[in-house]
Amino acid sequence: MKKQRIAVVGAGTAGLATATLLGRQGHAVTVIERANSLGAVGAGLLLQPSAISALSEMGCLEHMQQYGQRIDALFGWTRSGRAIMQVEYAHLGEKNDVFGLGVHRSALCHVLDTALETVPHDRWFGCEVSSIGQSDRDAVVAFRRDAEIHREAFDAVVIANGSASQLRPPALVRFDREYPWGAMWMIRPLTENLAALNRPHLQQKYDGSAVMVGALPTGCIPDADGTPMLSLFWSLPVSEISDWRAGRIDLALWKTQVIALWPELEPLISAIASPSELLPATYRDVIMSRWAQGRVGVIGDAAHAMSPQLGQGANMALLDATALASAVRQCENWDEVWGQYYRVRQGSIRFYQRMSRFLTPLFQSRMVGAARGRDLALPLSHRIPWVRRQMAETVAGRKQRWIL
Known about the structure:
The chain is α+β, with helices and mostly antiparallel strands. It has one domain: FAD/NAD(P)-binding domain. It contains twelve helices and 21 strands. It has a seven-stranded mixed beta sheet. A hairpin with a 4-residue loop joins strand 9 and strand 10. Helix 1 (13-24) runs parallel beside helix 4. The longest helix is centred in the last third of the chain and has 30 residues, at 334-363.
């Protein structure tokens, strides 16, 4: 495709990666972001092997490894100590080294922004996009900056402003709702008294399907002192988040509950002085019939937000970016670009949307019998080599369909 003027709305994982890859192709890229500066916040996340491959393709993997913590497996146990989740990347049976990376969101943002800085582009920060219109010739972005409304025409617009996006073409949105369950999270230094958690694993503990706590080593934070960090997640209904924010929970009772479930967390949990030390996270379930219309496309969480149960958000965003850049490089017009993009991404996106919707109630719900069925089925599946391999493929972010 000849040189295009492209707006990327949103400077998160999907937006920064897309802008970098399109800029490298010589397109005139403009990143439009609501925030006044680039400073990603949020909990730690797990980059799966699919994302590792995408970062390697972008030439960013070595930089990312400077901040990330290698992760080799995902384990989960019940209160009694029974192993429920046992997924190891070694189960993929590959000769090449396969691993995940626990990272802080700000570290991923820093690595992608560093890559973007190497290509010509424009940044419009502090700009709130209100609407996107289009014609056969261009797409027009209307945005507010300095209390004034501005309009700018582009050859195409990529919407990548997250799960709460209000810019998705309404005709393409089939489903958009907030998940009834969220999480409270915190990040703390991985000190010597937390040695049991200083392992290359994502670890979780469960008490039925309504109680879940997880811990993930997330490497270090850019511009900090290089101290390894640990992310802690506590699952809870969204309806209870307001009580946490208002400090209306019985913190002592909660500490007792968590430590009884996972005694190794005691040094971390006992040091919490206020509910405000944990921050809330909510999630959306977004389904679109297609991810583009004319000169406007939607990628990342804005296109297919889902529960974090499979931990695929950042991975899917990076895969979206590489697939879109590949389509732009090979195609002659935007109809062809979106057609190829849809063919490449539809299998993976649909699979993970359905799998996430199926698995989430087994770990985050008060559904009668959910935990019992989970606790019977998952340990049995680990004993079957083919099923164990499929579970590893699913977690690794490589699946395209239910079978194979």
